[in-house]
Design a protein that fits this description.
Blueprint (H helix, E strand, L loop, with lengths): L13 H11 L7 E5 H15 L3 E5 L6 H8 L4 E6 L2 H7 L6 E3 L6 H9 L1 H6 E5 L2 H10 L8 E6 L4 E3 L3 E3 L9 H13 L3 E8 L2 H4 L9 H32 L4 E4 L5 H5 L6 E4 L1 H4 L16 E12 L2 E5 L16 E4 L3 E3 L9 E6 L10 E5 L12 E6 L2 E7 L10
Parallel strand pairs: 1-18, 2-3, 2-11, 3-4, 4-5, 5-6, 6-9, 9-10, 10-11
Antiparallel strand pairs: 1-12, 7-8, 12-13, 12-17, 13-16, 14-17, 15-16, 18-19
Helix pairs in contact: 8-10
Bound molecules: pyridoxal-5'-phosphate.
């Protein structure tokens, strides 16, 4: 698949956009997933624009389709992947030469496979934030009996606010320059390891929408948090990177995500940004002030019954996203416009009744388009995506699931 920047943005006219997707996929039985090639291309290029020259490492958890990851990596400006499990990373490393595992691993089988392969050991970097991670690797294969293992040190990127408390996600216990230096020194001095990079992912900036609909006070609070957190991290990430560079050469300093491309790129210590969600443009990413991804990935369900003239029942729907449970974790009813779930049923395991303006006109056999809350999780429900351009399917690509892989 070639991701050429599109000259028009058909998704800005929902009737045309969803109409074309419906026409192109008319012969497919539901449920099925579709990706608009021009929308994906638009998103991929818009992310590059927003990163203004900083390399983007593709966060594969937010895609989970090998063909899509490879097509994006073919664009100048993208390089390497941030994988989400070591088993996945080893699989991808067969064809992708630069794989960073974004999260620590306790997968002993995969560690043994990594340690035994000179090729994989050159291509794959593990994430560590504690001596325990080094000990675990050594307990699988002793340092003298294996390839040196490439590791990156993860720094806590949360923001501690006097007024608002702990903002961000709980990841690494390594927060200060002194803590980072101490762990880095241990790694550098320890046989069997190479410290090649560091990562600090500011989830509270990258993954929290700053224009939540109907919540202006929250929006102002998020703006405040994101501004101050960015300033605090710029100092600390820069100082840690400098301290680590005194001990060893770092190949990369990774930060950010789809929501923070501009801000993370403006941090001079960052050499690359990991991002993926913006490619598919799931609906969690609809409410940022500074970018609007095209709704590139969607899935279609069929109307299978009409319990009442104004209610249509979809076959399926409950592909609910991870994270704090709430209405925003439901797939968004994208087309036709004006459909709503019933509050007492919401998106069901097998059936999702919907009401609203358009429901009365829906007949058995009609299709409804939905967008998942998150990007990569949709791929876990599908064996493949139909890639659509204009009114036609141009290619079909297997998801990880379709390739028989279920990593997490
Ligand atoms: C370490 C890390 N970097 C970057 C990201 C950003 O990914 P995305 O662009 O899909 O939001 C994530 C997502 O959770 C992450 O865990």
């Amino acid at each position: 698949m070639q991701l050429t920047p599109p000259t028009t943005q058909p998704w800005l006219d929902p009737r045309q956009y969803w109409g074309s997707l419906t026409t192109a996929t008319a012969a497919l039985d539901t449920p099925f997933g579709a990706v608009s090639v021009p929308a994906l291309a638009y998103n991929a290029h818009d992310m590059l624009r927003r990163a203004s020259g900083t390399t983007i490492r593709v966060a594969t958890k937010s895609v989970r389709v090998r063909g899509v990851v490879e097509s994006v990596l073919a664009l100048p400006g993208y390089s390497g992947v941030l994988a989400y499990t070591l088993a996945e990373g080893l699989w991808l490393a067969k064809t992708i030469p630069d794989v960073v595992i974004g999260y620590p691993t306790a997968d002993r089988t995969a560690i043994a496979a990594l340690a035994a392969s000179p090729k994989l050991a050159k291509r794959v970097t593990l994430m560590v934030d504690s001596v325990h991670h080094l000990d675990l690797i050594d307990s699988v294969v002793a340092a003298g009996k294996r390839e040196p293992i490439r590791v990156a040190l993860e720094l806590d990127a949360s923001w501690r606010s006097r007024a608002l408390g702990y903002l961000g996600v709980f990841r690494s216990p390594v927060r200060t320059v002194a803590q980072a230096r101490a762990l880095a020194r241990t790694i550098v001095e320890r046989k069997g390891f190479e410290l090649v990079g560091m990562m600090a992912y500011e989830a509270q900036v990258a993954g929290v929408v700053n224009r939540p609909p109907g919540k202006p006070v929250l929006a102002r609070t998020v703006d405040y948090v994101q501004k101050h957190s960015t300033e605090e991290l710029r100092e600390r990430r820069g100082a840690v990177a400098a301290a680590l560079r005194e001990l060893t050469e770092l190949e990369f300093v990774n930060g950010g995500g789809t929501g923070s491309l501009e801000r993370t790129a403006a941090d001079p210590s960052v050499t690359e940004i990991a991002a993926g969600s913006g490619l598919f443009g799931p609906h969690l990413f609809d409410s940022y002030s500074h970018f609007t991804p095209a709704p590139a990935a969607a899935f279609a369900l069929s109307v299978v019954r009409k319990p009442q003239p104004t209610v249509a029942t979809l076959h399926g729907g409950g592909w609910v996203a991870s994270g704090p449970p709430g209405p925003d974790r439901m797939p968004k009813l994208a087309w036709p416009e004006g459909l709503q779930y019933l509050p007492r049923e919401m998106a069901g395991e097998v059936q999702s009744p919907v009401k609203g303006r358009a429901a009365a006109a829906l007949e058995v056999g009609d299709r409804v388009w939905l967008r998942h809350t998150k990007a990569g999780e949709l791929s876990e429900h599908l064996l493949e995506f139909a890639l659509v351009d204009g009114d036609a399917i141009v290619e079909t690509m297997p998801t990880y699931r379709g390739e028989g892989k279920a990593f997490l």
